[in-house]
Amino acid sequence: MLSDGVIYPLVFADVALFSIQEQGLCVLLARRTNEPEANKWALPGGILKPKIDASLDQTALRVIRDKVGVSAGCVEQVRLFSGETRDPRGYSLSLLYCALLSKDQACAVAGLKTSKVCWVSAELATAKELAFDHGVMLAEALQFLRAKVKHRALPLHLLNATFSLLDLQDACSLILGSPVDKSSFRRRMKAEAGIRPVPGQFREGAYRPAQLYQATPGFQF
Amino acid sequence: MLSDGVIYPLVFADVALFSIQEQGLCVLLARRTNEPEANKWALPGGILKPKIDASLDQTALRVIRDKVGVSAGCVEQVRLFSGETRDPRGYSLSLLYCALLSKDQACAVAGLKTSKVCWVSAELATAKELAFDHGVMLAEALQFLRAKVKHRALPLHLLNATFSLLDLQDACSLILGSPVDKSSFRRRMKAEAGIRPVPGQFREGAYRPAQLYQATPGFQF
DNA sequence: ATAATAGTGTCTCTAAGACACTATCCG
DNA sequence: CGGATAGTGTCTTAGAGACACTATTAT
Q1: Could you tell me the CA-to-CA distances from A125 to A43, A141, B23, B31 in Å, in that order?
Q2: What angle separates helix A182-190 from helix A165-176, to the nearest 10 degrees?
Q3: What is the pLDDT of residue A206?
Q4: Which of A97, A126, A150, B45 is 20 to 30 Å apart from A78, CA to CA?
Q5: Smallest Cα–Cα separation from A102: which of A76, A131, A71?
Q6: Closest CB to A80 among B1, B8, B77
Q7: Cα separation, B185 vs B34, whole angstroms
Q8: What mean pLDDT is reported for chain B?
Q9: Whose CA is nearest the C1' atom of nucleotide D8?
């Protein structure tokens, strides 16, 4: 039992928080300040505090709030990692979460410059050596995200509240790591219940304006 | 902390163990013998014993061994349920597992007649009132199983080591709750890497013999 | 006009659904 | 032979991939 009144030690929520930046699909990494594995990069995580967290899902949300100061649009369980050897402090349970952050919010995070957390290209991050078993975790979170998008889920939570179809297409293409055909994509989107055009709203800018879309009320990633 | 030396109380593995019986798709329910919720039906579950279980997945396997005396072919995490109110003993974590048992093994279980566990039609079981939040759990486990089969995963672990294509088709159809077209199904199976015909092996019996199949070595549900 | 981005049309190919058909066993 | 189950052929349709095409804006 830990000294600070936490009754259930070594139950963690670890979060793979994704966003889209200039470098492409990125994941938020945090540099560990304490032992064990101090100074290594890790997925941001936090210990379950039963007094505060109504559920472990709430722990994950709290971790995101604490690390980046905003609330993620979509937080989902991926898999539980458990065992005696994965953390030197003892038998531990870590529930891995996959979360998505909108471009707006991700930019706010990037502006923090706390030096404790930073966005790293997902591809680069998987090559990095991470603390504990977070390398495996990141790989699984990525696979989880890719599988969902491949099965035609729309990663709207990575985008702003209104977005053009090309924004969405680019997001899918970045996640999948392969180009997405414009015509077939738009054909699918016409029949898609999850999004709808916002009448009269266009992305103004250079060249031809683009119709803007938004998620329909009941949308679930 | 519990008295019997278990250090991490209230971490459970609860298992929705499915098999195919005469009544169709069935789930194993256990009648609770102890408080709380004594005498209610529940998904079989067990507490994490860090000294014994190398991981919580091992707890799930142990639960299955203890309850039915055989090892399940396929055990997968579905979702973690957690919170203060779901179990009167205090803040608890329950990782729900979905597991499949082959017909051979399921029959052995049915023969046990321990009166502590029994196979209940999945449809009926969802209508029953179960202990704790096990009703929600069962619903999610079923949805998990259906989603996998809908996405063309093959529930081979519900069948014996060798099986006819009709056995497999019937299993899919029972899980999905809707008929599956024979011709399209067999067409798919011809191109399916997960199974292969066993040369020269046929189901003998009344009328025309059926070619038997088996899972290919690397098969994963 | 030209560049650049937004959005459409159309051909092809694959795979699924529907359902009628043939094949092989038993007695 | 007929009855029952095993397995095939074929028509149609829905949707994805490929890719060339048109449309609308700014300069």
Answers
A1: 10, 12, 50, 48
A2: 120
A3: 81
A4: B45
A5: A71
A6: B77
A7: 46
A8: 92
A9: B183
